[in-house]
Structure formats: structure tokens, C-alpha cells
Fold:
Amino acid sequence: MKIKRIIDISGTINSSTTVWPGDEGVTVDRIKNMKNGDSYNLSLVHMGVHTSTHVDAPLHFIEEGLDISSVNLEKFIGCAKVFEFYTQDCIKASNLCKLDINSGDIVLFKTSNSSLDVSGDFNEEFVSLDESAAKFLVDKKIATVGIDYLSVERFDSNISTVHNLLLQNEIGIIEGLRLRDVPEGEYFLSCVPLKIEGAEGSPARAVLIEFYL
Structure:
């Protein structure tokens, strides 16, 4: 099978990358520099594991949950369905009931979030999933859900119901996708987190692949 197109749906990580309020920003320091006479270049990166495009592990909200080094990679590599929404509030079960969502699917939601600037101030009004949508996806027994901002859950949620519903039911979570230029449809997804022992999440390089038929 021949690759037709690879679509990078990852955010760029740099010192201007938007982060969740309260998280530390990103710093990339060149600690060895050939311009300064060193024989090679070497960088040191400081950032949170939920920076830009990233995967949440169950440990993020479940005390004894799996860490990111132990998650099932089959949830983040495989056929994915991209669905586009125009709601300005949140995605509800009523928005999902007529969609072709089946057991084992990787479901990616493209919303108005994909037009937001992700190199500046955090936007608290991003589109998220509500509890009914999370329950719908649990009932459908999907493999993974992804969304195009830094959380599947609304900003002012204090009890993290959506995260808990998804993670307790072994549904993978991808946050911070960049889907602005991606049409609705089916693709092959690769979104593999780093194997960081003990961490509850990890940045990931996410790509969608189209194949020639």
C-alpha cells in the first residue's frame, strides 16, 4: 500500500506554546552550541507532559491507573474517523447519535478550536465534551477520543467527570490536536506517546496518513 499524504496534526512546541493555566511554560535551551565553538549542538527542554499535542494516561485521574509507559499503543495507532462540529459550546450525546461511531473506533473531533491561536494566551471558551457525550462514547466502546484543544473537558470543571468516565473505561485520550486543514473522513492515525515511566501523560507527534486506493 502506497502512502498518498501524511498530515501533521501536532502542535509546535516552543517558548510561545499555549499551556494550561498554572502549568509552567516551555523552555528550550541550547546547552552545547557549535556557533560558540562546541563540537556539536545539544538542547535541554523543560515543559509539562501535557504540553501541546499529548496523550493522557489513566494515572492522570485514577490513583492506581496505568502510567504512560504502560498504555496500550493499539489505542493510538490505527484507523481513525475525523468528525467536524460547528457548536460553539460543547459536544453532547445528541450531536453524536447519528454519526458512524462503532466499537473500537478512534474518534477525532474537529471543532472551532482548530482555528484558535495556540501560541498565545489560553482560551477558556474552547469546545469540549459534556458528560452525556462521554457516556455515549463509553457505551459505544470506542478505543480512543481526540480533540483539538488542551482538554476534552470544559475549563471550569472541578470534578473531571469526563476524564474519569473515559479513563475508567479504558478509552484513550488525545488532546491538543491541530485539525484545521483536515477534512472529515477516515485516515490512519499514528500518535505515540513517549515511554516515560511513572508519568501520567506525554507529548506525542500525531499524524494522519492517507493511502492510495
About this structure: Residues 3-11+49-211 form a domain with the Glucose Oxidase; domain 1 fold (CATH 3.50.30.50). Helices lie at 93-96, 131-140, 161-168. The longest helix spans residues 131-140. The chain has a mean pLDDT of 97.
